[in-house]
Design a protein that fits this description.
Length: 609
Protein backbone atom coordinates (compact mmCIF):
# COMPACT_ATOMS: atom_id res chain seq x y z
CA UNK A 1 0.00 0.00 0.00
CA UNK A 2 1.42 3.38 -0.99
CA UNK A 3 1.69 6.41 1.28
CA UNK A 4 -0.90 8.16 -0.93
CA UNK A 5 -3.35 5.26 -0.52
CA UNK A 6 -2.87 5.22 3.27
CA UNK A 7 -3.43 8.97 3.36
CA UNK A 8 -6.66 8.68 1.38
CA UNK A 9 -7.95 5.83 3.53
CA UNK A 10 -7.15 7.76 6.70
CA UNK A 11 -8.95 10.83 5.37
CA UNK A 12 -12.00 8.72 4.65
CA UNK A 13 -11.86 7.10 8.07
CA UNK A 14 -11.70 10.52 9.76
CA UNK A 15 -14.50 11.96 7.63
CA UNK A 16 -17.87 12.43 9.38
CA UNK A 17 -20.69 10.20 8.18
CA UNK A 18 -22.71 13.11 6.81
CA UNK A 19 -19.86 14.09 4.50
CA UNK A 20 -19.29 10.47 3.42
CA UNK A 21 -22.90 10.33 2.20
CA UNK A 22 -22.25 13.19 -0.20
CA UNK A 23 -18.83 11.94 -1.31
CA UNK A 24 -19.76 8.28 -1.84
CA UNK A 25 -20.03 7.49 -5.57
CA UNK A 26 -23.61 7.42 -6.83
CA UNK A 27 -25.10 6.34 -10.14
CA UNK A 28 -28.41 6.88 -11.88
CA UNK A 29 -30.56 4.16 -13.44
CA UNK A 30 -28.77 3.32 -16.72
CA UNK A 31 -30.58 4.14 -19.95
CA UNK A 32 -30.00 1.61 -22.76
CA UNK A 33 -30.10 1.74 -26.53
CA UNK A 34 -33.22 0.17 -28.02
CA UNK A 35 -31.38 -1.49 -30.91
CA UNK A 36 -28.12 -2.05 -29.02
CA UNK A 37 -29.17 -2.96 -25.46
CA UNK A 38 -25.59 -3.75 -24.44
CA UNK A 39 -24.85 -0.03 -24.66
CA UNK A 40 -25.96 2.15 -21.74
CA UNK A 41 -25.68 5.70 -20.46
CA UNK A 42 -25.76 6.77 -16.82
CA UNK A 43 -24.87 9.68 -14.51
CA UNK A 44 -22.28 9.41 -11.74
CA UNK A 45 -20.47 11.69 -9.31
CA UNK A 46 -17.38 9.44 -9.26
CA UNK A 47 -15.01 12.32 -10.11
CA UNK A 48 -16.60 14.70 -7.59
CA UNK A 49 -18.86 16.26 -10.24
CA UNK A 50 -22.00 14.71 -11.73
CA UNK A 51 -21.21 13.74 -15.33
CA UNK A 52 -22.40 11.33 -18.04
CA UNK A 53 -20.80 7.89 -18.45
CA UNK A 54 -21.01 5.35 -21.29
CA UNK A 55 -21.16 1.67 -20.35
CA UNK A 56 -20.48 -1.16 -22.80
CA UNK A 57 -22.04 -4.14 -21.05
CA UNK A 58 -20.46 -6.57 -23.51
CA UNK A 59 -16.94 -5.59 -22.45
CA UNK A 60 -17.70 -4.11 -19.02
CA UNK A 61 -15.97 -0.85 -19.97
CA UNK A 62 -17.32 2.31 -18.30
CA UNK A 63 -16.08 5.63 -19.64
CA UNK A 64 -16.72 9.26 -18.71
CA UNK A 65 -18.05 11.15 -21.73
CA UNK A 66 -18.61 14.71 -20.45
CA UNK A 67 -16.34 16.92 -18.42
CA UNK A 68 -17.49 20.41 -17.45
CA UNK A 69 -16.69 22.56 -14.43
CA UNK A 70 -20.33 22.64 -13.28
CA UNK A 71 -21.26 19.10 -14.33
CA UNK A 72 -23.65 17.51 -16.83
CA UNK A 73 -26.75 15.39 -16.20
CA UNK A 74 -28.99 15.84 -19.26
CA UNK A 75 -28.08 13.16 -21.78
CA UNK A 76 -29.81 10.82 -24.24
CA UNK A 77 -28.51 7.68 -25.94
CA UNK A 78 -29.65 7.24 -29.55
CA UNK A 79 -31.73 4.09 -30.25
CA UNK A 80 -28.95 2.59 -32.40
CA UNK A 81 -26.45 3.12 -29.57
CA UNK A 82 -24.09 5.06 -31.83
CA UNK A 83 -24.49 8.57 -30.40
CA UNK A 84 -24.63 10.23 -27.00
CA UNK A 85 -26.50 13.53 -26.96
CA UNK A 86 -25.97 15.95 -24.05
CA UNK A 87 -27.26 19.41 -23.27
CA UNK A 88 -24.64 22.13 -23.13
CA UNK A 89 -25.66 25.19 -21.09
CA UNK A 90 -23.56 27.88 -19.41
CA UNK A 91 -22.81 27.29 -15.73
CA UNK A 92 -26.24 25.88 -14.93
CA UNK A 93 -28.39 28.53 -16.62
CA UNK A 94 -30.28 25.77 -18.57
CA UNK A 95 -30.05 27.80 -21.79
CA UNK A 96 -27.98 26.15 -24.51
CA UNK A 97 -27.81 23.59 -27.31
CA UNK A 98 -27.67 19.82 -27.73
CA UNK A 99 -24.28 18.38 -28.61
CA UNK A 100 -23.41 14.82 -29.53
CA UNK A 101 -20.43 12.46 -29.59
CA UNK A 102 -19.90 8.89 -30.85
CA UNK A 103 -20.55 6.29 -28.16
CA UNK A 104 -17.01 4.94 -28.39
CA UNK A 105 -15.17 8.25 -28.62
CA UNK A 106 -12.54 8.99 -25.98
CA UNK A 107 -12.87 12.10 -23.84
CA UNK A 108 -10.03 14.42 -24.84
CA UNK A 109 -9.26 17.64 -22.96
CA UNK A 110 -9.92 20.72 -25.05
CA UNK A 111 -12.16 19.00 -27.58
CA UNK A 112 -15.73 20.22 -28.01
CA UNK A 113 -18.41 17.82 -29.22
CA UNK A 114 -20.22 18.79 -32.39
CA UNK A 115 -23.62 20.55 -32.30
CA UNK A 116 -26.25 17.85 -32.67
CA UNK A 117 -28.64 20.10 -34.58
CA UNK A 118 -26.81 22.84 -36.50
CA UNK A 119 -29.12 25.73 -37.26
CA UNK A 120 -31.00 25.77 -33.95
CA UNK A 121 -30.12 28.69 -31.71
CA UNK A 122 -29.68 28.25 -27.93
CA UNK A 123 -32.85 27.76 -25.92
CA UNK A 124 -34.29 26.06 -22.88
CA UNK A 125 -34.85 22.35 -23.63
CA UNK A 126 -38.41 21.11 -24.08
CA UNK A 127 -38.05 17.42 -24.88
CA UNK A 128 -36.03 15.36 -27.34
CA UNK A 129 -36.76 12.23 -29.36
CA UNK A 130 -34.24 10.49 -31.63
CA UNK A 131 -35.29 8.21 -34.47
CA UNK A 132 -33.93 4.69 -34.98
CA UNK A 133 -32.68 5.67 -38.44
CA UNK A 134 -29.76 7.46 -36.77
CA UNK A 135 -30.23 10.69 -38.72
CA UNK A 136 -33.61 12.10 -37.62
CA UNK A 137 -34.54 13.82 -34.38
CA UNK A 138 -37.38 15.89 -32.94
CA UNK A 139 -36.23 18.75 -30.73
CA UNK A 140 -38.38 20.81 -28.35
CA UNK A 141 -37.29 24.34 -27.47
CA UNK A 142 -38.46 27.26 -25.37
CA UNK A 143 -37.37 30.90 -25.38
CA UNK A 144 -38.78 34.12 -23.98
CA UNK A 145 -39.23 35.54 -27.49
CA UNK A 146 -40.64 32.51 -29.34
CA UNK A 147 -42.51 30.61 -26.64
CA UNK A 148 -42.47 26.89 -27.44
CA UNK A 149 -41.27 25.46 -30.76
CA UNK A 150 -40.71 21.91 -31.99
CA UNK A 151 -38.38 21.10 -34.88
CA UNK A 152 -37.70 18.09 -37.08
CA UNK A 153 -33.99 17.73 -37.83
CA UNK A 154 -32.29 15.43 -40.32
CA UNK A 155 -28.53 15.10 -40.67
CA UNK A 156 -27.24 17.38 -43.43
CA UNK A 157 -30.52 19.32 -43.72
CA UNK A 158 -31.78 22.51 -42.12
CA UNK A 159 -34.19 21.87 -39.21
CA UNK A 160 -37.89 22.32 -40.01
CA UNK A 161 -40.31 23.90 -37.56
CA UNK A 162 -43.33 21.65 -36.89
CA UNK A 163 -45.01 23.50 -34.04
CA UNK A 164 -45.11 26.93 -32.39
CA UNK A 165 -47.19 28.39 -29.57
CA UNK A 166 -46.79 31.01 -26.83
CA UNK A 167 -47.84 28.54 -24.12
CA UNK A 168 -45.74 25.66 -22.85
CA UNK A 169 -45.29 22.58 -25.04
CA UNK A 170 -42.76 19.83 -25.49
CA UNK A 171 -41.81 16.63 -27.29
CA UNK A 172 -43.43 13.55 -25.76
CA UNK A 173 -42.17 10.67 -27.92
CA UNK A 174 -41.50 9.42 -31.44
CA UNK A 175 -43.07 6.22 -32.73
CA UNK A 176 -40.86 3.18 -33.33
CA UNK A 177 -40.80 3.70 -37.10
CA UNK A 178 -40.52 7.49 -36.86
CA UNK A 179 -43.86 8.17 -38.55
CA UNK A 180 -45.69 9.71 -35.56
CA UNK A 181 -44.68 12.45 -33.10
CA UNK A 182 -46.47 12.87 -29.77
CA UNK A 183 -46.57 16.41 -28.34
CA UNK A 184 -47.69 17.61 -24.91
CA UNK A 185 -49.11 21.14 -25.04
CA UNK A 186 -50.96 23.68 -22.88
CA UNK A 187 -52.53 25.86 -25.55
CA UNK A 188 -55.59 26.18 -23.29
CA UNK A 189 -53.46 28.15 -20.82
CA UNK A 190 -53.30 25.67 -17.93
CA UNK A 191 -49.66 24.71 -17.44
CA UNK A 192 -50.56 22.08 -14.83
CA UNK A 193 -52.73 20.02 -17.20
CA UNK A 194 -51.40 19.15 -20.63
CA UNK A 195 -53.33 18.07 -23.72
CA UNK A 196 -51.87 15.76 -26.38
CA UNK A 197 -51.45 16.08 -30.13
CA UNK A 198 -49.94 13.56 -32.54
CA UNK A 199 -48.23 14.92 -35.64
CA UNK A 200 -46.71 13.45 -38.78
CA UNK A 201 -43.15 14.44 -39.71
CA UNK A 202 -44.61 16.96 -42.18
CA UNK A 203 -46.36 18.74 -39.29
CA UNK A 204 -49.90 17.64 -40.14
CA UNK A 205 -52.11 16.55 -37.25
CA UNK A 206 -53.12 12.91 -36.82
CA UNK A 207 -55.03 13.00 -33.54
CA UNK A 208 -55.82 15.18 -30.54
CA UNK A 209 -56.74 14.30 -26.96
CA UNK A 210 -57.72 17.03 -24.51
CA UNK A 211 -59.24 16.33 -21.09
CA UNK A 212 -59.29 20.04 -20.19
CA UNK A 213 -62.25 20.85 -22.43
CA UNK A 214 -65.76 21.14 -21.01
CA UNK A 215 -66.79 21.68 -17.42
CA UNK A 216 -64.89 23.42 -14.64
CA UNK A 217 -62.60 20.54 -13.63
CA UNK A 218 -59.51 20.33 -15.81
CA UNK A 219 -57.65 17.04 -16.06
CA UNK A 220 -54.12 16.40 -17.25
CA UNK A 221 -52.67 13.99 -19.79
CA UNK A 222 -49.06 12.88 -20.24
CA UNK A 223 -47.13 10.90 -22.83
CA UNK A 224 -45.65 7.66 -21.49
CA UNK A 225 -44.38 6.31 -24.80
CA UNK A 226 -45.22 4.70 -28.15
CA UNK A 227 -45.27 0.91 -28.41
CA UNK A 228 -41.72 -0.29 -29.28
CA UNK A 229 -42.90 -2.21 -32.37
CA UNK A 230 -42.61 -1.25 -36.05
CA UNK A 231 -45.90 -0.08 -37.54
CA UNK A 232 -47.55 0.02 -34.10
CA UNK A 233 -49.40 3.30 -33.44
CA UNK A 234 -50.42 2.52 -29.85
CA UNK A 235 -49.46 5.34 -27.50
CA UNK A 236 -49.28 4.74 -23.76
CA UNK A 237 -50.52 7.81 -21.90
CA UNK A 238 -51.32 8.86 -18.36
CA UNK A 239 -54.69 10.39 -17.41
CA UNK A 240 -56.49 11.77 -14.31
CA UNK A 241 -60.09 10.88 -15.10
CA UNK A 242 -60.68 9.06 -11.81
CA UNK A 243 -58.90 11.50 -9.54
CA UNK A 244 -55.37 10.09 -9.80
CA UNK A 245 -52.74 9.31 -12.44
CA UNK A 246 -53.45 6.06 -14.33
CA UNK A 247 -52.30 4.64 -17.68
CA UNK A 248 -54.33 3.84 -20.78
CA UNK A 249 -53.45 2.72 -24.30
CA UNK A 250 -54.52 5.08 -27.08
CA UNK A 251 -54.58 3.79 -30.65
CA UNK A 252 -53.97 7.16 -32.25
CA UNK A 253 -54.90 6.25 -35.83
CA UNK A 254 -58.34 4.87 -34.90
CA UNK A 255 -59.00 6.82 -31.70
CA UNK A 256 -59.64 3.64 -29.69
CA UNK A 257 -58.78 3.92 -25.98
CA UNK A 258 -58.11 0.92 -23.77
CA UNK A 259 -58.55 1.86 -20.12
CA UNK A 260 -56.60 -0.51 -17.87
CA UNK A 261 -58.43 0.14 -14.55
CA UNK A 262 -55.73 -1.35 -12.34
CA UNK A 263 -56.80 -2.24 -8.81
CA UNK A 264 -54.02 -0.31 -7.09
CA UNK A 265 -54.44 2.69 -4.75
CA UNK A 266 -52.48 5.87 -5.39
CA UNK A 267 -50.82 7.02 -8.61
CA UNK A 268 -49.91 4.58 -11.35
CA UNK A 269 -47.47 5.12 -14.23
CA UNK A 270 -46.24 2.64 -16.84
CA UNK A 271 -43.78 1.89 -19.61
CA UNK A 272 -43.67 -0.78 -22.30
CA UNK A 273 -41.85 -4.07 -22.10
CA UNK A 274 -39.53 -4.22 -25.14
CA UNK A 275 -41.77 -6.56 -27.16
CA UNK A 276 -44.91 -4.45 -26.61
CA UNK A 277 -46.87 -7.31 -25.03
CA UNK A 278 -46.85 -6.05 -21.46
CA UNK A 279 -46.42 -2.95 -19.31
CA UNK A 280 -44.08 -2.31 -16.42
CA UNK A 281 -46.26 -0.60 -13.82
CA UNK A 282 -44.75 1.90 -11.36
CA UNK A 283 -47.12 2.30 -8.42
CA UNK A 284 -46.77 5.11 -5.84
CA UNK A 285 -48.88 5.28 -2.66
CA UNK A 286 -48.38 7.17 0.60
CA UNK A 287 -44.68 7.94 0.06
CA UNK A 288 -43.69 4.38 -0.99
CA UNK A 289 -43.59 2.71 -4.36
CA UNK A 290 -43.44 -0.72 -5.97
CA UNK A 291 -43.46 -2.42 -9.39
CA UNK A 292 -45.88 -4.69 -11.26
CA UNK A 293 -46.10 -6.40 -14.64
CA UNK A 294 -49.36 -6.06 -16.58
CA UNK A 295 -49.97 -8.52 -19.44
CA UNK A 296 -52.02 -6.75 -22.11
CA UNK A 297 -53.52 -9.92 -23.60
CA UNK A 298 -54.70 -11.56 -20.37
CA UNK A 299 -55.05 -8.50 -18.15
CA UNK A 300 -53.03 -10.30 -15.47
CA UNK A 301 -51.25 -8.09 -12.96
CA UNK A 302 -48.18 -9.65 -11.31
CA UNK A 303 -46.04 -8.04 -8.65
CA UNK A 304 -42.36 -7.48 -9.41
CA UNK A 305 -40.62 -8.05 -6.10
CA UNK A 306 -38.78 -5.03 -4.67
CA UNK A 307 -37.82 -4.21 -1.06
CA UNK A 308 -40.02 -1.81 0.95
CA UNK A 309 -39.06 1.77 0.18
CA UNK A 310 -39.02 3.85 -2.98
CA UNK A 311 -38.32 2.90 -6.59
CA UNK A 312 -37.08 6.09 -8.26
CA UNK A 313 -36.93 4.60 -11.75
CA UNK A 314 -37.29 1.25 -13.50
CA UNK A 315 -36.84 -0.26 -16.94
CA UNK A 316 -37.65 -3.63 -18.49
CA UNK A 317 -34.76 -5.22 -20.39
CA UNK A 318 -35.11 -7.34 -23.58
CA UNK A 319 -34.55 -10.56 -21.60
CA UNK A 320 -37.58 -9.79 -19.42
CA UNK A 321 -35.63 -8.77 -16.34
CA UNK A 322 -36.27 -5.42 -14.68
CA UNK A 323 -33.60 -3.00 -13.46
CA UNK A 324 -34.58 -0.38 -10.91
CA UNK A 325 -33.12 2.37 -8.75
CA UNK A 326 -34.15 1.75 -5.14
CA UNK A 327 -33.55 3.25 -1.70
CA UNK A 328 -35.21 3.79 1.66
CA UNK A 329 -34.72 6.50 4.26
CA UNK A 330 -32.35 4.14 6.10
CA UNK A 331 -30.52 2.56 3.13
CA UNK A 332 -28.59 4.37 0.35
CA UNK A 333 -29.69 4.08 -3.27
CA UNK A 334 -28.63 1.16 -5.47
CA UNK A 335 -29.36 0.02 -9.02
CA UNK A 336 -30.79 -3.48 -8.65
CA UNK A 337 -32.13 -6.19 -10.92
CA UNK A 338 -34.89 -8.75 -10.53
CA UNK A 339 -32.11 -11.32 -10.99
CA UNK A 340 -31.08 -10.42 -7.45
CA UNK A 341 -27.86 -8.76 -8.59
CA UNK A 342 -26.68 -5.20 -8.10
CA UNK A 343 -26.46 -3.74 -11.59
CA UNK A 344 -23.98 -0.96 -10.85
CA UNK A 345 -21.80 -0.92 -7.74
CA UNK A 346 -19.33 1.97 -7.98
CA UNK A 347 -15.95 1.32 -6.34
CA UNK A 348 -14.67 3.52 -3.57
CA UNK A 349 -16.19 5.05 -0.46
CA UNK A 350 -19.49 3.49 0.64
CA UNK A 351 -22.29 5.69 1.92
CA UNK A 352 -23.32 5.14 5.55
CA UNK A 353 -27.01 4.54 6.12
CA UNK A 354 -29.35 6.61 8.24
CA UNK A 355 -32.42 6.02 10.43
CA UNK A 356 -35.78 4.69 9.22
CA UNK A 357 -38.65 7.06 8.58
CA UNK A 358 -41.86 7.03 10.60
CA UNK A 359 -45.27 8.16 9.34
CA UNK A 360 -47.48 10.78 10.93
CA UNK A 361 -50.96 11.67 9.72
CA UNK A 362 -52.19 15.05 10.94
CA UNK A 363 -55.60 16.65 10.52
CA UNK A 364 -55.20 19.84 8.53
CA UNK A 365 -57.60 22.47 7.16
CA UNK A 366 -57.78 20.68 3.80
CA UNK A 367 -57.72 17.07 5.03
CA UNK A 368 -55.21 14.66 6.49
CA UNK A 369 -51.59 15.71 5.94
CA UNK A 370 -48.90 13.05 5.61
CA UNK A 371 -45.58 13.82 7.32
CA UNK A 372 -42.41 11.75 7.40
CA UNK A 373 -40.46 11.78 10.66
CA UNK A 374 -36.84 10.88 11.41
CA UNK A 375 -34.98 11.37 14.67
CA UNK A 376 -31.61 10.30 16.04
CA UNK A 377 -31.60 6.71 17.29
CA UNK A 378 -32.25 6.34 20.99
CA UNK A 379 -33.43 9.91 21.55
CA UNK A 380 -36.63 11.21 23.08
CA UNK A 381 -38.16 14.63 22.67
CA UNK A 382 -38.49 17.41 22.78
CA UNK A 383 -35.70 17.75 20.20
CA UNK A 384 -34.41 20.59 18.07
CA UNK A 385 -36.35 19.93 14.90
CA UNK A 386 -35.85 20.76 11.24
CA UNK A 387 -38.90 21.09 9.01
CA UNK A 388 -37.36 20.34 5.61
CA UNK A 389 -39.88 21.37 2.95
CA UNK A 390 -39.76 19.81 -0.51
CA UNK A 391 -39.66 21.70 -3.77
CA UNK A 392 -41.83 21.40 -6.83
CA UNK A 393 -44.43 22.22 -5.61
CA UNK A 394 -45.82 19.25 -7.57
CA UNK A 395 -43.49 16.72 -6.00
CA UNK A 396 -43.47 14.74 -2.76
CA UNK A 397 -41.14 13.48 -0.08
CA UNK A 398 -40.90 9.70 0.17
CA UNK A 399 -39.31 6.87 2.10
CA UNK A 400 -36.09 7.29 0.14
CA UNK A 401 -32.50 8.06 1.00
CA UNK A 402 -31.52 11.72 1.28
CA UNK A 403 -28.11 12.92 2.44
CA UNK A 404 -29.37 16.34 3.55
CA UNK A 405 -31.86 15.18 6.21
CA UNK A 406 -29.38 12.52 7.35
CA UNK A 407 -26.82 15.27 8.05
CA UNK A 408 -29.25 17.06 10.38
CA UNK A 409 -30.02 13.77 12.16
CA UNK A 410 -26.30 13.14 12.68
CA UNK A 411 -26.11 16.51 14.44
CA UNK A 412 -28.90 15.69 16.89
CA UNK A 413 -31.92 17.15 15.13
CA UNK A 414 -35.24 15.51 14.36
CA UNK A 415 -36.35 15.99 10.76
CA UNK A 416 -39.97 16.47 9.66
CA UNK A 417 -40.95 16.46 5.98
CA UNK A 418 -44.48 17.48 5.02
CA UNK A 419 -46.40 16.46 1.90
CA UNK A 420 -48.55 19.59 1.90
CA UNK A 421 -51.43 20.30 -0.48
CA UNK A 422 -49.85 20.61 -3.91
CA UNK A 423 -47.78 17.46 -3.40
CA UNK A 424 -48.13 14.54 -5.79
CA UNK A 425 -49.05 11.00 -4.79
CA UNK A 426 -52.25 11.76 -2.86
CA UNK A 427 -54.73 12.25 -5.68
CA UNK A 428 -55.52 14.99 -8.19
CA UNK A 429 -57.54 17.14 -5.79
CA UNK A 430 -54.67 17.29 -3.28
CA UNK A 431 -52.20 18.33 -5.99
CA UNK A 432 -54.56 20.79 -7.67
CA UNK A 433 -55.51 22.52 -4.39
CA UNK A 434 -52.73 25.03 -5.08
CA UNK A 435 -54.66 27.77 -6.82
CA UNK A 436 -54.73 31.51 -6.16
CA UNK A 437 -53.72 31.36 -2.45
CA UNK A 438 -50.35 30.01 -3.48
CA UNK A 439 -47.89 29.44 -0.63
CA UNK A 440 -50.46 30.26 2.04
CA UNK A 441 -52.23 26.92 1.50
CA UNK A 442 -49.02 24.94 1.97
CA UNK A 443 -48.16 26.91 5.11
CA UNK A 444 -51.51 25.99 6.65
CA UNK A 445 -50.63 22.30 6.31
CA UNK A 446 -47.09 22.87 7.60
CA UNK A 447 -48.53 24.75 10.60
CA UNK A 448 -50.83 21.83 11.41
CA UNK A 449 -47.89 19.40 11.39
CA UNK A 450 -45.81 21.85 13.44
CA UNK A 451 -48.52 21.93 16.11
CA UNK A 452 -48.63 18.13 16.15
CA UNK A 453 -44.83 17.90 16.42
CA UNK A 454 -44.83 20.20 19.46
CA UNK A 455 -47.85 18.74 21.29
CA UNK A 456 -46.70 15.16 20.67
CA UNK A 457 -43.45 15.91 22.49
CA UNK A 458 -41.23 15.40 19.44
CA UNK A 459 -40.20 19.01 18.82
CA UNK A 460 -38.88 21.75 21.07
CA UNK A 461 -41.00 24.82 20.16
CA UNK A 462 -38.06 27.15 20.85
CA UNK A 463 -35.71 25.28 18.51
CA UNK A 464 -37.64 24.88 15.27
CA UNK A 465 -35.91 25.41 11.92
CA UNK A 466 -37.84 25.96 8.68
CA UNK A 467 -35.79 25.07 5.62
CA UNK A 468 -36.06 23.93 2.03
CA UNK A 469 -34.81 24.41 -1.51
CA UNK A 470 -36.51 25.89 -4.57
CA UNK A 471 -40.26 25.89 -3.76
CA UNK A 472 -39.27 24.70 -0.30
CA UNK A 473 -36.99 27.74 -0.05
CA UNK A 474 -39.88 29.94 -1.14
CA UNK A 475 -42.13 28.45 1.54
CA UNK A 476 -39.34 28.99 4.07
CA UNK A 477 -39.12 32.73 3.42
CA UNK A 478 -42.90 33.06 3.19
CA UNK A 479 -43.34 31.11 6.42
CA UNK A 480 -40.83 33.27 8.31
CA UNK A 481 -42.94 36.32 7.45
CA UNK A 482 -46.45 34.88 7.68
CA UNK A 483 -45.73 32.78 10.80
CA UNK A 484 -42.98 34.85 12.48
CA UNK A 485 -43.53 33.43 15.98
CA UNK A 486 -43.51 29.80 14.85
CA UNK A 487 -39.87 29.48 13.77
CA UNK A 488 -36.55 30.08 15.49
CA UNK A 489 -34.49 29.98 12.30
CA UNK A 490 -34.92 29.94 8.54
CA UNK A 491 -32.60 28.44 5.91
CA UNK A 492 -33.69 28.93 2.29
CA UNK A 493 -31.86 27.56 -0.76
CA UNK A 494 -32.51 28.95 -4.27
CA UNK A 495 -35.87 30.45 -3.18
CA UNK A 496 -38.54 32.63 -4.69
CA UNK A 497 -38.26 35.74 -2.53
CA UNK A 498 -39.92 38.52 -4.54
CA UNK A 499 -42.65 36.89 -6.59
CA UNK A 500 -43.27 39.76 -9.02
CA UNK A 501 -39.60 40.20 -9.95
CA UNK A 502 -39.15 36.43 -10.08
CA UNK A 503 -42.00 36.19 -12.60
CA UNK A 504 -40.45 38.78 -14.90
CA UNK A 505 -36.94 37.26 -14.76
CA UNK A 506 -37.64 33.51 -14.80
CA UNK A 507 -37.66 31.11 -17.76
CA UNK A 508 -40.78 31.11 -19.93
CA UNK A 509 -42.12 27.70 -18.82
CA UNK A 510 -42.22 28.87 -15.21
CA UNK A 511 -44.04 32.06 -16.18
CA UNK A 512 -46.77 29.81 -17.61
CA UNK A 513 -46.89 27.79 -14.39
CA UNK A 514 -47.20 30.94 -12.28
CA UNK A 515 -50.04 32.23 -14.46
CA UNK A 516 -51.81 28.92 -13.88
CA UNK A 517 -51.26 28.90 -10.13
CA UNK A 518 -52.15 32.54 -9.53
CA UNK A 519 -54.71 33.01 -12.29
CA UNK A 520 -52.84 35.59 -14.36
CA UNK A 521 -49.81 37.85 -14.58
CA UNK A 522 -48.68 40.29 -11.87
CA UNK A 523 -50.40 43.05 -13.83
CA UNK A 524 -53.67 41.09 -14.08
CA UNK A 525 -53.88 39.79 -10.48
CA UNK A 526 -51.53 42.03 -8.46
CA UNK A 527 -53.29 41.27 -5.18
CA UNK A 528 -52.60 37.53 -5.50
CA UNK A 529 -48.92 38.03 -6.28
CA UNK A 530 -48.66 40.40 -3.33
CA UNK A 531 -50.38 37.98 -0.94
CA UNK A 532 -48.12 35.12 -2.04
CA UNK A 533 -44.79 36.96 -2.11
CA UNK A 534 -42.29 36.63 0.77
CA UNK A 535 -41.25 40.24 0.08
CA UNK A 536 -44.67 41.40 1.29
CA UNK A 537 -43.97 40.06 4.78
CA UNK A 538 -40.22 40.65 5.05
CA UNK A 539 -40.57 43.33 7.73
CA UNK A 540 -42.39 40.86 10.01
CA UNK A 541 -39.51 38.35 9.98
CA UNK A 542 -38.02 37.82 13.45
CA UNK A 543 -35.84 34.74 13.02
CA UNK A 544 -32.27 34.79 11.67
CA UNK A 545 -32.31 34.01 7.93
CA UNK A 546 -29.75 32.17 5.82
CA UNK A 547 -30.13 32.23 2.02
CA UNK A 548 -28.06 30.46 -0.63
CA UNK A 549 -28.49 31.29 -4.30
CA UNK A 550 -27.04 30.33 -7.68
CA UNK A 551 -26.08 33.43 -9.63
CA UNK A 552 -27.08 31.77 -12.96
CA UNK A 553 -30.40 30.36 -11.74
CA UNK A 554 -33.16 30.71 -14.40
CA UNK A 555 -35.86 29.34 -12.09
CA UNK A 556 -35.36 31.49 -8.99
CA UNK A 557 -33.26 34.32 -10.43
CA UNK A 558 -30.76 36.23 -8.35
CA UNK A 559 -32.22 39.76 -8.76
CA UNK A 560 -35.40 38.95 -6.87
CA UNK A 561 -33.38 37.37 -4.04
CA UNK A 562 -31.24 40.51 -3.84
CA UNK A 563 -34.41 42.59 -3.51
CA UNK A 564 -35.43 40.57 -0.47
CA UNK A 565 -31.95 40.67 1.07
CA UNK A 566 -31.78 44.47 0.67
CA UNK A 567 -35.01 44.78 2.66
CA UNK A 568 -33.57 42.59 5.43
CA UNK A 569 -30.38 44.66 5.48
CA UNK A 570 -32.29 47.95 5.56
CA UNK A 571 -33.75 47.10 8.95
CA UNK A 572 -30.58 45.34 10.16
CA UNK A 573 -32.31 41.97 10.44
CA UNK A 574 -30.02 39.04 11.22
CA UNK A 575 -29.23 37.32 7.94
CA UNK A 576 -26.48 35.76 5.85
CA UNK A 577 -26.34 35.21 2.09
CA UNK A 578 -24.17 32.79 0.15
CA UNK A 579 -23.97 33.17 -3.63
CA UNK A 580 -22.30 30.53 -5.79
CA UNK A 581 -21.46 30.27 -9.47
CA UNK A 582 -24.07 27.80 -10.72
CA UNK A 583 -27.75 27.55 -11.53
CA UNK A 584 -30.65 26.01 -9.63
CA UNK A 585 -28.37 23.97 -7.36
CA UNK A 586 -24.89 22.59 -7.88
CA UNK A 587 -23.64 19.35 -9.48
CA UNK A 588 -20.25 19.65 -7.76
CA UNK A 589 -19.90 17.48 -4.66
CA UNK A 590 -17.47 19.82 -2.85
CA UNK A 591 -19.88 22.70 -3.39
CA UNK A 592 -22.80 20.71 -2.01
CA UNK A 593 -20.77 19.77 1.06
CA UNK A 594 -19.73 23.39 1.56
CA UNK A 595 -23.36 24.51 1.48
CA UNK A 596 -24.47 21.90 4.02
CA UNK A 597 -21.56 22.80 6.28
CA UNK A 598 -22.55 26.48 6.11
CA UNK A 599 -26.15 25.65 6.96
CA UNK A 600 -25.17 23.48 9.92
CA UNK A 601 -22.81 26.17 11.16
CA UNK A 602 -25.49 28.87 10.86
CA UNK A 603 -27.88 26.75 12.91
CA UNK A 604 -25.22 26.03 15.54
CA UNK A 605 -24.33 29.70 15.97
CA UNK A 606 -27.88 31.01 16.15
CA UNK A 607 -29.77 28.14 17.72
CA UNK A 608 -27.41 25.77 19.45
CA UNK A 609 -28.66 22.38 20.60
Amino acid sequence: MTESTRSTEQQQADMPDWEKRFRAPRVSLPDWAEDAPHRSLFVSNATGTYELYAWDRATGEQRQVTHRANGTTDGVLSPDGEWIWWFDDKDGDEFGIWRRRPFGAALVDGETDEPAVPGLDPSYPAGLAICRDGRTSVVGRSTDDDGSTIHLARTGEAPVELYRHRESAGVGDLSHDGSLIAVEHTEHGDAMHSALRVLRPDGSAVAELDDTEGGTVELGLEVLGFAPVDGDSRLLIGHQRRGRWEPLVWEVTTGEQTDLRLDLPGDVAAEWYPDGSALLIAHSFEARSDLWRYDLASGQLTEVATPPGTVSGATARPDGTVEYLWSSAAEPSAVRSTTGETVLDPPGLKSPGSVPVEDAWVEGPGGRVHALIQKPAGTTGPLPTVFEIHGGPTWHDSDSFAAGPAAWIDHGYAVVRVNYRGSTGYGREWTDALKHRVGLIELEDIAAVREWAVTSGLADPDRLILTGGSWGGYLTLLGLGVQPDAWALGIAAVPVADYVTAYHDEMEALKAMDRTLLGGTPEEVPERFEASSPLTYVDAVKAPVYISAGVNDPRCPIRQIDNYVHRLAAREAVHEVYRYDAGHGSLVVDERIKQVRLELDFAERHLGK
